[in-house]
Amino acid sequence: MMPMLLLAVLLPYNTLVVAGGVAAVGCAAGVVGTLSVLRRRALVGDAAAHATLVGVAMALLVTGQRSLAVLLAGGLVSAIAALVLLVLIRRFTRTRDDAATAVVLSVSFGLGIVLISGMVARGVPGSAGLERFLLGHTAALTIGDATLLGIVSTLAVACVWLGLKEATMVAFDPAFAAAAGWPATAIDLTLVTLVAVMVVVGLPAAGAVLVTALVVIPPVAARQWTDRIVPMLIIAGGIGLVCGLAGVVISSLATRLSTGPVVVLVAAGCFVVSLVIAPRRGLLARWWDRPAAVPTADQQRLEQR
Amino acid sequence: MGAAALAVSWWGWLESIGPMHGWAMATAAVVAAGCATVGSLLVVRRLSLLGDAISHAVLPGIVVAVLLGGRPGGPLVLLGAVVAALLTVGLTQLFHRQAGLAEDAGVGVAFTTLFAIGVLLVTVSGSRIDLDPGCILYGILELVPFDTVPVLGYELPRAFFSAAIVLLVVSVGLWLSWRWQLFTAFDADAARAAGVPTTAVTVGLLVGVSLATVAGFEAVGAILVVAMLVVPAAAAELLVQRLSQVVLLAVALAVTGAVAGYLAAWRFDTSAAGMMAVVLGLEYGVAVLVAPQEGLLARAAARLSYAWRVRCEDRLAALWRAEEAGLPVAGGLSAGPPLQWLRLQGRIEPVGTGYRLTPRGRAEGELIVRSHRLWETWLGQHANLPVDHLHPPAEWIEHHLGARLRQRIEQDLGRDVRDPHGSEIPPERPA
Q1: Is any Cβ of chain A less than 8 angstroms from the Cβ of B47?
Q2: What is the CATH number of the domain that holds A127?
Q3: A105–B223: do the CB atoms touch at under 8 Å?
Q4: What is the pTM of this model?
Q5: Could you tell me which of B201, B221, B172, B194 has the C-alpha nearest to residue B31?
Q6: HSE-up of residue A177 (Cα within 13 Å, Cβ side)
Q7: B284 contacts in A (CB within 8 Å)?
Q8: CA-CA distance, A158 to B62, in Å (whole number)?
Q9: Which residues, 6 or more positions from B383, have their beta carbon under 8 angstroms from its beta carbon?
Q10: Is the minimum CB–CB distance between B234 and chain A shorter than 8 Å?
């Protein structure tokens, strides 16, 4: 903790602002991502992230403003629309989940590119370089942006906390939840919407591909340490938070290192460490004490949902 | 008139744009064909997301190859991309087996990490390589014709040449390994048991995917390669059943989408690669609508024709019951469309102000009533339902019982039974 505080004192104001925003997003993405990974929807966030481009372009076209809040609102609308489309494709065609995800992802991304290129060609003010929105522009976060990210992240975590029982039920056994009279579809849609919100909010912090990582990697790393959902949520949130902080700090120390990839690589490092040294499930533990590697009944029950 | 004017104006600019756009379009078409060929197998094997992952994860391989002195589009870069792609798949499998991760989560961890490494390598190496992550993501089809290589005395665009080679390689590879690919795609376990080297088959497919991806990179960009890999194949899979047909149709759809997308992008002055993805998406949407049997239109048509048949059969049954009761012919029946249809079909004929059954209509109406009453009776005997609950199920099933089932129910009921309401059950008459 001390070195962290020391860094906080030594770092320039700008870096602190960015670090705060990215850490908040990392934490909330880890928490929301836990439920999504357990629900086997790890890559839904990827589709949502690419679909935001359409909404971002439309938002600029309609309002003529290029403020973060406006663009994010547009992105959120189109991300949710894409996820609804995904659910409809699953419901009404025999296209399988993986192909449906890839179709929605690539076509909505193409549409976004078409809109933006068309706007640039017609000289719509503010449209130049809009497609870079998906690459993230972390260093440009202002204190207002960071506050926005913080508020949305807190709300998302609060949502998960309030609906934890319902979300757990649906994540582990949707059929049972539905049979027991829970509004399983509504809970599911809420979860998917939360993922969309986190992805959209994380975009400016990390970029499209890398926000996918924030939703997937911390939960997967946390999964190595525990078999219970509440500890998993807390660990995932903690890993996301630390990765956000550490990534921003590291990239601010070296010139030329862009923040998003560094955050992801820190997260990947956490995952590899967890994979190796985690008690019971870790590679070392299994190598050390082979019989301990047999909690597979438990494990498989968790994983096969 | 409008269409003719449109055609003239399109032809006009097609002539005016000259060979540059021809080459760009041809490159896009060849890239699309290669992607759709391997993409069909990815989709059928439920590996679509691997296409997404590979198209991102080849970035570090390409960057390292360029740093080692490879030329964009050259063999070293292709090799680097293939290695990175196989690394993605290997890592995914490792996470799946060793850490018990679900496959999608494993894919998510592997490709985002590799992509992050690639982006970092690009930014760190800075001026030493002229790779722009933006251009890798979005492609620059418009510049394809300006970078040429001499081939057999002709100046061919380099991107076209490498895409054509890749198309040749993947088609020949698929052709040679077709039976193995087919067997592995549909039942990998049985294929392995039968001695098919399934691992080699899968690795071969993934090498093909990474080759097609790299070839498509420069032309259309990473994410739109995903569109070309997956979308035509997903559309084709809705439309036809056999895998060979899926591959051929996917290639046709992909090439059409590429050319139409390029033209539309030119017309509306926007990104060609993006427009191709949109056109492919539209093709998928059309496939969802018009697919035989499971398409939305086919299902709606089936539902409508079923509802219509039920309407008509209910009218026949009502007329038959009216005759049975000796009521004035067709009293209370308004001449709606079903009655008009039945009249056209020769099932009923007008008499006075109403209708009566023709012999053919009478036979059919009688069968409906017979089915209805048999079912009510059988339910009454076996299901222990109160009498007023027997009608609704019978009203539904009367349209579905066949001759053999009616016969079996009758045998089950025994001789000389009346239905629960006391009506006689009409006998089965030879048609």
Answers
A1: yes
A2: 1.10.3470.10
A3: yes
A4: 0.81
A5: B221
A6: 18
A7: 103, 107
A8: 42
A9: none
A10: yes
**Paired tokens of A23:** 């850490």
DSSP state of A248: H
Q: Does A48 touch chain B (CB under 8 A)?
A: no
Into how many domains does chain A fold? 1
pLDDT digits (tens), chain A, 305 positions:
555 566 556 667 777 777 888 888 889 889 988 888 887 777 888 888 888 889 988 998 888 877 777 888 899 999 989 988 887 887 788 888 888 988 998 999 889 988 988 888 888 777 777 767 766 666 667 777 788 888 888 898 898 888 888 888 877 887 888 888 888 777 877 888 888 888 888 777 667 777 888 888 999 899 888 888 889 999 999 999 998 888 888 888 876 677 778 888 999 999 989 888 877 777 777 777 655 455 555 556 665 55
A95 to B237: CB separation less than 8 angstroms, yes or no = yes
Strand partners, B148: B157
- Out of A80-84, B143-147, B208-212, B231-235, least confident range: B143-147
Answer yes or no: do A102 and B230 touch at CB < 8 A: yes
From the list B47, B104, B276, the residue facing A40 with the nearest CB is B104
- Tell me the chain A residues in contact with residue B286 when contact means C-beta distances shorter than 8 Å: none
Distance CA B54, CA B90 (A): 12
Nearest to B230 among A106, A115, A215 (CB): A106
Domains of chain B, CATH where assigned: 16-291 (1.10.3470.10), 301-413 (1.10.10.10)
Q: In chain B, what residues touch A251 (CB-CB under 8 Å)?
A: none
Q: Does ipTM come in above 0.90? A: no
Provide the residue range defining the domain that includes A156: 2-303
Closest CA to B105 of A37, A278, A192: A37
Size (chain A), residues: 305
